[in-house]
């Protein structure tokens, strides 16, 4: 696309869509017009991609969440037209950064699980695999987080309020989803292009929006019942109205169940309609042409639904079960009991009376097999899908799919030896490991152009952009003074950029020469943000007691949303904000340490935070974090990890060396041994300084505005301390103090970060996707 073509296109689009000159438009409108011009440019290649995959086997990623973030820069970089477009816009007098900021994040996910889906789509298209995403077009994405007096206050995220240039409505492909005989809605697909790096393959993310079948009741309107006249449309649209803001907990609500059935049924009908339109003779071919990945159990209703759809076509149950099993695979994302989806039978049958019999039939088939295998009846509770009034989605997903995968080596091992041991003993080949990954296009190339440029210079090529193992070639340069100096300068620059951003958005002054120690992830007790806060509180006390010591300057940064109904998580946010207020305003310490809790952490904020980190906080209680992917983004950007032997941390230190990271705390077997004979108060009393920190929750040091929140935090710690914060504190403090001490020798410290970056190759989602494609989906690339 030449510069002139682009300029003409943009100016033309502005007249066409806004009836105005481009130069008269506000930033949101200008963004939209530029987006439309880019869409027009990429559509021919998009059509060509659909054609080239034509009749081959394809993979479908079904997910209730796709945490996409912004698309403009990503699309430009992947299309390879970023330079030209920026230059043209500059010539037109447009501030590209402002234009970029005008795009609303597509926040259609909560955290890691949704972001993984987004990274997979990027890798799938980049590697030229036929991979489509299927999900829900939520009208409101993850809520916006505001802090009011230090408390989290949620605000709706109407991300579609301003037209979205990346979504194309495809009314022709609309289908009807039937919850029950008199409860049906229309599912209308909106397609988003997924541009692979290099632009050769453009795949599709298809998001379904719910609409009424009869959108307007004219009779009611005629009778003056104006609200009634649009009631059906309102009720239908409720289904795709909001993303449930939960992470790692099961909501168990009627609307949530409807959402799950809504998008899985629509997606499968879409596949069936295309399959039939292509004129296949036998439904046995369905599994030869489709690999359907269930991202957690949120889309697990695809199992009974596909059986139902096949039976409607005259296929008998056994054959339908077989086709379904051969077509599907399931990813398990958690070991937390509270996150496993279990539906109440009464609720389920009230919402989906026509689907329930298929689950009964699947369960009956399982019972026949348990008898056949002579499984002891005492063991059946480890298998049965229907138990009393409960329907276990994970068990159905293991039983009726071809492959089940965990998301990091330690997680998969725990599935095999503990949580799903009975299943693993029965089907020793079914449970696989696919360690998660992240796309280096977004998390390095795009968000850290300075470091990307250095890597390309040093390696002499940009191959790493699609082949991240190339980073290993940097490792021999760890002792090159000039290289390290450049690496440190770039980190300093990213810290400076973040400091300015934080100054503007959070109104806190931070020092780019201090250690940037960052914990960004959903707020959850198992992730132990509170332990990091206690370290800061203890450090504050120590500095106050000994102000003349040569303390290392440090900035502690948090970013996290708490589920709106998660009381303790919200108490932790309030506590950290109070702690930040105290630290930042105390002249005895605020020249040494600062604390910032950034508001509204999301993908776009993340893109500024990861590149500026010196220290990555990955301090979950061992055995609780399935993988983590934030840990990988930090590593890729050259931070060291302070972390437990949990999730992908285990593999991170396997790649980069324990000596280049700060591993502390109990390991899984120690946690297991400790449970049942744990005395949190004894742990607190034996750890110097800890009692003062814990007591400060309730002795008037901090103000919770008389909510009683801090007392509740105190009680939960002293009574139980479920996540062993008080037990692991001492070892965490040692690791943290070691970091402060190591930082005094900057070269030695940053050398560790550099080695981490050089060994991040394994954690590209390209590697993960390649494994899914070859070992689970059996799909092949298209040249
Ligand atoms: C990567 C990412 C996550 C996942 O972080 P974890 O530390 O693995 O929990 C969550 N939210 C956003 C916005 C991310 O980019």
UniProtKB/TrEMBL annotation:
Any one GO MF annotation of this record: pyridoxal phosphate binding
Reactions it catalyzes? [(1->4)-alpha-D-glucosyl](n) + phosphate = [(1->4)-alpha-D-glucosyl](n-1) + alpha-D-glucose 1-phosphate
**What is one Gene Ontology biological process annotated in the Swiss-Prot or TrEMBL record?**
glycogen catabolic process
Kindly list the places in or outside the cell where this protein is found, as annotated in its UniProt entry: Cytoplasm
The UniProt keywords, alphabetically, are: Allosteric enzyme, Carbohydrate metabolism, Cytoplasm, Glycosyltransferase, Pyridoxal phosphate, Transferase
Entries under InterPro entries matching the protein: Glycg_phsphrylas, Glyco_trans_35, Pyridoxal_P_attach_site
PROSITE patterns for the chain: PHOSPHORYLASE
Q: Which GO terms describe its cellular component?
A: cytoplasm
> Transport: is it a keyword of this entry?
no
* Enzyme class of the recorded protein, top EC level: transferase
Q: Which residues carry this modification: N6-(pyridoxal phosphate)lysine?
A: 633
Which EC number applies?
A: 2.4.1.1
Give the principal location in a single coarse category. Answer: cytoplasm
Q: Name one Pfam family in it.
A: Phosphorylase
Per its UniProt record, the required cofactor names are: pyridoxal 5'-phosphate
Q: Does the keyword Transferase apply?
A: yes
Question: What NCBIfam families has UniProt attached to this entry?
Answer: P_ylase (TIGR02093)
Q: What's this chain's function?
A: Phosphorylase is an important allosteric enzyme in carbohydrate metabolism. Enzymes from different sources differ in their regulatory mechanisms and in their natural substrates. However, all known phosphorylases share catalytic and structural properties. Allosteric enzyme that catalyzes the rate-limiting step in glycogen catabolism, the phosphorolytic cleavage of glycogen to produce glucose-1-phosphate, and plays a central role in maintaining cellular and organismal glucose homeostasis.
Family, similarity comment: Belongs to the glycogen phosphorylase family.
Annotated protein name in UniProt? Alpha-1,4 glucan phosphorylase
- Lineage of this protein's species? Bacteria, Bacillati, Bacillota, Bacilli, Bacillales
